[in-house]
């Protein structure tokens, strides 16, 4: 398995800042000489510890060895959000100075480790040295030169050691979760639900093995159920943020996980495809291990019509994650490109949809983050020779594509079927409008969601009670009823609980996901705005909890989005907002209070979390006409295959 990526991480902990560079000594001195010591940058900094650090402390640390423990801790906690930059009256690059200081101090995991928490959860007779010995049995940690002991100690100190009795579940199929589990002792059984709803045993995991990496890497629901198979099974439960930190400081660990999990995903997907039926398990495994994995960000092209050469035209592309749009040039100036199809996880392209005879190329572009397995024609050649039926199936699909391509150039898309889409598009008046709605559902990310708030405009009386109920419950409205309109349905501007939430890459664990799918803001949030910056749909906003009216306005991506303009004027004022937790009994969430952090918090992110912790959803409950409803876009608008791959007449 080979690994390629179109965008590489720039530096440890800063995947959201790929354009940064280290200042040289002369530049550092110039920046510090320009500083007037006003401390505006520290007041704008969202890190709670910034209240105890001055800009003079940081300037001194940049040019001397006078680095106090609190400055070292603040430097490690800095998330490089850039809030300090726009408020500087002399246009200093405070973020670059912090980057230089981070580089000077090095990786925090090189320092002393506090193992008090881990020691309290060790099984009887265990000590730290035995935990390290068990971890070294994992192939990924076997080389101490790659993963030093001190890194593993930090790894253990920030994770949870669990001692499980027989039958206890580690994870459940269909639930969301990003923790990864390393088996230190004992055994675990792996199950999957069959078509008859019975659990089918798949494997037994033993000491030295792990499970859960697919959910950690992709954010997708768990594909299996895992239970302890012995009375004393010892497992290290590692949170996603801890694993991500290790993968950042030791890139070899990330490469190991990505390659191995991708090979498993490719093999599993190939074995499920009708195209590869009757091909032996050994041949599919060999094909999967030879595949090259490519990763694409939103709006990146996988390949285009202009790239008519090899090897794209002779490559099998298998979608592992995400959505793409497939387009072809029309030759017309007004509409130069026609979208002829959409594809998602499990779909594939054969030589750019033309490997075995069709010479016409297409342009394929990522709509969401996309992972693709590429298998060359040379790698497929053995199968084509060994399995004549496989070759016939590929040729048949090429023929079907050619027919669809001819139709796409000679007609328009079918309008939506009102019965299939229920009331979603009953007011659609033309094929052009239907086509626009079709593309909007995908391009605006509606089909990427798992829970979408929609309003039936035929029933809505525009009372705004849904927004006001949201504000009454949460202190700030987390939605705006005005959004994209498809037919007679308005797609409300609010978090859709995406299948692959790009906002969740938070180093502070300030945003998380419940097993049932709700993405919520945790008590660890400091309001840095990185999640809001990452959200492609402007569904996360940052609320200031301070009363300092002299504070400069935050950066554009830290303000309320245009959809939250109503609440922007009420942004200021010290208001404790409830964090999404899991109460013992359903009901209102309790405000977070822990070591005085709430008194230091300056900002916080807000987003719809489906009213986690309550018995109902305020917006839906408050609607007097029943116009507001929560839907799964796939079941409500129709399956992705039905809607997004609709052929032309």
TrEMBL record:
In this protein, which residues make up the domain named Cyclic nucleotide-binding? 140-247, 314-401
Gene3D superfamilies tied to this protein: 3.30.70.20, Jelly Rolls
Q: Which UniProt keywords apply?
A: 4Fe-4S, Electron transport, Iron, Iron-sulfur, Metal-binding, Transport
Domain spans labelled 4Fe-4S ferredoxin-type: 26-55, 69-91, 451-482, 517-545, 602-634
How far does the signal peptide extend, from start to end residue? none
Enumerate the GO terms in the molecular function aspect: 4 iron, 4 sulfur cluster binding; metal ion binding
Write down the InterPro entries for this protein, in alphabetical order: 4Fe4S_Fe-S-bd (IPR017896), 4Fe4S_Fe_S_CS (IPR017900), cNMP-bd_dom (IPR000595), cNMP-bd_dom_sf (IPR018490), RmlC-like_jellyroll (IPR014710), RnfB_subfamily (IPR050294)
Q: Which domain of life is it from?
A: Bacteria
PANTHER family assigned to the protein according to its UniProt record, in alphabetical order = DIMETHYLSULFOXIDE REDUCTASE CHAIN B, OXIDOREDUCTASE
Name recorded for this polypeptide:
Cyclic nucleotide-binding protein
Q: Which organism is it from?
A: Dictyobacter aurantiacus
């Amino acid at each position: 398995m080979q690994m390629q990526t179109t965008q590489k991480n720039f530096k440890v902990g800063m995947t959201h800042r790929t354009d940064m560079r280290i200042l040289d000594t002369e530049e550092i001195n110039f920046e510090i000489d320009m500083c007037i010591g006003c401390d505006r940058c520290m007041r704008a900094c969202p890190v709670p510890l910034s209240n105890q650090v001055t800009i003079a402390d940081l300037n001194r640390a940049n040019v001397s060895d006078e680095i106090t423990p609190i400055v070292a801790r603040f430097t490690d906690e800095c998330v490089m959000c850039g809030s300090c930059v726009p408020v500087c009256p002399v246009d200093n690059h405070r973020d670059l100075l912090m980057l230089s200081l981070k580089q000077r101090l090095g990786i925090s995991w090189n320092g002393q480790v506090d193992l008090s928490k881990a020691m309290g959860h060790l099984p009887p007779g265990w000590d730290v040295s035995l935990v390290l010995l068990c971890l070294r049995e994992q192939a990924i940690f076997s080389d101490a030169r790659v993963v030093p002991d001190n890194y593993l100690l930090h790894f253990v100190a920030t994770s949870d050691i669990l001692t499980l009795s027989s039958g206890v579940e580690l994870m459940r199929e269909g639930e969301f979760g990003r923790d990864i589990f390393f088996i230190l002792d004992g055994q675990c059984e792996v199950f999957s639900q069959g078509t008859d709803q019975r659990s089918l045993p798949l494997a037994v995991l033993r000491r030295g093995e792990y499970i859960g990496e697919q959910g950690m890497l992709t954010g997708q629901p768990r594909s299996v159920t895992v239970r302890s198979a012995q009375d004393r099974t010892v497992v290290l439960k590692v949170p996603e943020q801890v694993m991500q930190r290790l993968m950042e400081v030791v890139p070899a660990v990330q490469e190991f996980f990505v390659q191995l999990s991708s090979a498993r995903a490719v093999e599993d997907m190939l074995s499920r495809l009708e195209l590869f039926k009757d091909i032996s398990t050994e041949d599919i495994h060999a094909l999967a291990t030879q595949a090259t994995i490519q990763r694409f960000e939103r709006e990146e092209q996988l390949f285009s019509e202009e790239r008519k050469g090899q090897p794209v035209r002779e490559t099998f592309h298998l979608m592992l994650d995400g959505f793409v749009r497939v387009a072809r040039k029309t030759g017309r100036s007004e509409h130069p490109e026609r979208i002829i199809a959409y594809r998602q996880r499990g779909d594939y392209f054969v030589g750019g949809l033309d490997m075995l005879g069709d010479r016409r190329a297409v342009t394929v572009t990522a709509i969401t983050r996309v992972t693709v397995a590429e298998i060359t024609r040379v790698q497929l050649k053995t199968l084509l020779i060994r399995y004549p039926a496989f070759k016939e199936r590929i040729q048949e699909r090429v023929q079907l594509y050619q027919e669809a391509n001819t139709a796409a150039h000679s007609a328009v898309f079918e309008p939506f079927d009102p019965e299939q889409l229920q009331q979603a598009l009953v007011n659609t008046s033309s094929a052009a409008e239907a086509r626009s709605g079709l593309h909007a559902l995908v391009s605006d990310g509606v089909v990427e969601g798992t829970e979408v708030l929609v309003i039936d405009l035929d029933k809505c009386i525009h009372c705004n009670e849904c927004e006001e109920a949201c504000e009454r419950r949460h202190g700030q409205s987390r939605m705006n009823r005005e959004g994209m309109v498809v037919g007679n349905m308005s797609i409300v501007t609010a978090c859709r609980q995406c299948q692959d939430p790009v906002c969740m890459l938070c180093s502070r664990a300030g945003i998380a996901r419940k097993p049932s799918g709700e993405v919520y803001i945790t008590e660890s949030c400091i309001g840095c705005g990185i999640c809001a910056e990452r959200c492609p749909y402007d569904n996360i906003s940052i609320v200031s909890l301070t009363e300092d009216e002299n504070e400069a306005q935050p950066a554009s991506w830290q303000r309320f989005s245009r959809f939250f303009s109503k609440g922007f004027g009420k942004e200021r004022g010290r208001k404790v907002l409830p964090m999404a937790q899991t109460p013992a009994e359903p009901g209102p969430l309790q405000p977070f209070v822990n070591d005085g952090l709430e008194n230091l918090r300056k900002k916080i992110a807000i987003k719809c979390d489906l009213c986690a912790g309550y018995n109902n959803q305020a917006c839906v409950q408050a609607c007097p006409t029943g116009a507001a409803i929560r839907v799964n876009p796939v079941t409500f608008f129709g399956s992705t295959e039905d809607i997004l791959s609709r052929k032309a007449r």
